[in-house]
Amino acid sequence: MGWRLVDSGSGPLPQRWQQVASDEQPGSGHRRSLPVNVWEGGREVVIEASLPGVAPEDVELRGADGVLDIRAQALVAEREYLHQEMFPLEYRRQIALPAGCHLEAAEAVVEHGLLSIRVPKSRPPAPIRIQIDHRAPALTTIEAEPGSGLQVTRVEGASRARSGPKAP
Predict the structure, then answer these.
(1) What are the tens digits of pLDDT across the range 113-142?
(2) Cα–Cα distance list, 14 to 2, 24, 83, 86 (Å)
(3) What 8-state DSSP symbol labels residue 112?
(4) CA atoms within 13 A on the CB side of 49
(5) How far is the C-alpha of 78 from the C-alpha of 87, rounded, in Å?
(6) Which domains does the chain have, with CATH numbers?
(7) Using CB atoms within 10 A as the burial measure, which of 7, 31, 47, 61 is most buried?
(8) Which residues contact 88 (CB under 8 A, 6 or more apart)?
(9) Cα separation, 110 vs 37, whole angstroms
């Protein structure tokens, strides 16, 4: 009988710990979610990812169409363990970046299990002013018989026709 993480007592906590321990089975190919923080600082977007146990040569970064793809592998030596809780893991995460990011100029560093990627971005273009054409519209002549109830009024340089009785 091998060493146990917790006693097999009753109750939800020991059962949950046993489940957590048994979820991680040895062998490569086990995937884990990659926790990240993404923030903007000045003229760059910074992505920080937690990669414990991952060597820089085991990290692959690719980018296309404004999406950064992070892949990494945490390797564990194969040997006969008395107790094993660390297993080889594969990490993968895709992150959509804001418009104006230049992935081709990105820089990355792995230090103490933290991957830091700095992606420069363009300054957003200044808003442009759209001129409004303020020429007076062509006037239309309306012919009406006296007493027909059609009244013509002048509104901001243009004529507007309205039917109904004349205003007093």
Answers:
(1) 899 999 999 987 788 888 888 776 666 666
(2) 17, 16, 18, 20
(3) T
(4) 27
(5) 9
(6) 27-120 (2.60.40.790)
(7) 47
(8) 26, 27, 28, 29, 30, 73, 74, 75, 76
(9) 15
